[in-house]
Amino acid sequence: MRIGVDIDNVLSNFNEVLLNDYLNHDKSLRNNGIVNKDVYIRKMFDWPEEYEKEYYKNNIERLAVFFEPIKDCSKYIKLLRKEGNKIYIISGRDNGEYSDPYNMTINWLKKYDIEYDELILTNAYNHQEKADICLKNNIDIMIDDSTNVCSKCTDNNIKSLLFDTEYNKKENRFERVNSWEEIYKYINNHEQEKINVILDTDT
Questions:
Q1: Does domain 2-13+68-202 have CATH number 3.40.50.1000?
Q2: Strands laid side by side in the 141-144 sheet
Q3: What pTM, to 2 d.p., does this model score?
């Protein structure tokens, strides 16, 4: 099976790092804290839109050094590859916010011993691009925290698993996974179902 895997919030604790930084920075501004709940972190605070965009752009590369892996992602990816699956890491980091996104990502994956077969970077603000990459590479399942990406993949008949985050909890269109152990079990069960269908057809 060819498995597409997002990085931020699927392999890395992106949201945790971003929220902590925004909370700390907000204290130096109005110190109003979170004023909008149940939305994405970048919209939780009462900062002017242009100010937030500029702050994010100027600081995201600094924050990237603090990203750490999601629990057990390395362990289960190794198991999936050992069992014959191909891992395509497809991340929206090629959007001008990092000075050298490709090498930065390779070094991070190496640092945390996360195996993969191919690394592909896309523009995070073009959700269709991930779906197009999945089609081009015959991806069977795409694992992402973005409801927009999952929607585009589903529209193109690509199975999507939505990795659980605080801001996507109200989404119910896609199958949800909460951990890499769940992902591993889902993929193994999915493979077994395919084998059973083939055996039934042959019979």
A1: yes
A2: 118-121, 86-91, 2-5, 141-144, 159-163, 175-177
A3: 0.91
